[in-house]
Amino acid sequence: MVTEEQLKKARDYNYLKSKYPKDYTPVKGYDFSKSFDFKELLNSYKTTGFQATHLGIAIDLIKKMREENVTILLSYTSNVVTSGLRDVIAHLVRKKLVHVLCTSAGGVEEDIMKCHKPFILGDFKADTKELYVRGMNRTGNIYTPDEWYVEFEKFLLPILEEFYQRQKKEGKIVSTPELIKEFGEKVNDEGSIVYWAAKNNIPIFCPGIVDGAIGDVIWFFKHKHPDFKIDVSDDIYNLSNLSIEAEETGAICLGSGLPRHYLLNSNIFKGGVKYAVYITTAGEGDGSTSGSKPSEAYTWGKIELFKPYEKNSVLVEGDATIIFPLIVAGAFII
Asked: Could you confirm whether 274 is annotated as catalytic?
């Protein structure tokens, strides 16, 4: 039989005297009993808790970037462009709401491929062999037919030839942003990220330029022209200079990997970006750069630490296809 003394101790163990801040924020979700207000819905995320609160913080940080005229750096992985987020980024670039882009090879080539034909909505569980024999490449639940890559090769080869002839005549080796800008000038499609980046003189950096279909085409091209080169040293030189010359910088990172690291690393020579917003599903357990959190970036000097900012970074854990449109609506549109 449990004694009264034991019951008292059990209660004492279970209920400690709470010491909480007097200016605490109560947890509260959106009140759907009232007339619907999308702006209020987004504002309610901050007090909802969990990742919703982080989403609300992300909106506030990007608003600060805009209010303080911070140079906004946007990094994104190729799957972002595979998805409909390509259209969201194209809007930001068209309206000059971001100032520097950094992506992977797929983030460039798939943007151009979509100018010729749309990608196809499919199924995560589609039959692998059936897709292969039909010439359908699957990224999640999105399909890209082999034909689209053939069209991309037709687009890219004349541009490579143009820069190769310049290299032979003038000794000038093309840089990655220069190559991508030429893509934008040639593509002539208002739905394209590279089109608007070229129009608005917004540089696109791509540290892994040969990791994808662009690299495949270059491989074939170099069999004909073995001395063809792309100068990637120009890329880091120009990006690091741009970061240092900007009075203040802020980073929005969709996904992680090489684009995010490359962009943030270019800011260590100025003490890091002033604000940072991460959106990713990666975890940090394996010590990879992809799974690293803002708390780790502080130790490398990628995000400013010794500054009187109340909150200057946030990680929103989740799928960018769901999260980023809400952030854009709250920070750039409403």
From this structure: no
Is residue 146 domain-resident?
yes
User: Catalytic one among 168, 293, 302, 311?
Assistant: 302
Domain count, the chain: 1
Distance of alpha carbon 276 from its chain centroid, rounded?
A: 12
Q: Quote the pTM value.
A: 0.95
- Is 241 within a domain? yes
> What pLDDT does 213 receive?
96
Tell me: the pLDDT tens digits for 90-103? Answer: 999 999 999 999 99
Virtual torsion, Cα 319, 259, 113, 196, nearest 10 deg: 100
pLDDT single digits (tens) 146-196: 999 999 999 999 999 999 999 999 999 999 999 999 999 999 999 999 999
> Which residues are registered as beta bridge partners of 142?
121, 139
What's the order of all strands across the beta sheet hosting 275-280? 204-205, 100-103, 71-76, 249-254, 275-280, 313-317
Identify the CATH number of the domain in which residue 239 sits: 3.40.910.10
Whether 180 maps to a domain, the answer reads yes
Domain extent, residue 140, equals 57-333
Q: Would you say residue 9 lies in a domain?
A: no
Which residue blocks in the chain are alpha helix, DSSP H?
A: 4-14, 38-48, 50-67, 78-82, 85-94, 105-116, 128-133, 146-170, 176-187, 193-199, 213-224, 233-245, 257-265, 294-300, 320-328
State how far the Cα of 67 lies from the Cα of 277, in Å rounded to an integer: 16
Whether the Cβ atoms of residue 204 and residue 75 lie closer than 8 Å to each other: no
**What confidence score (pLDDT) does residue 13 get?**
79
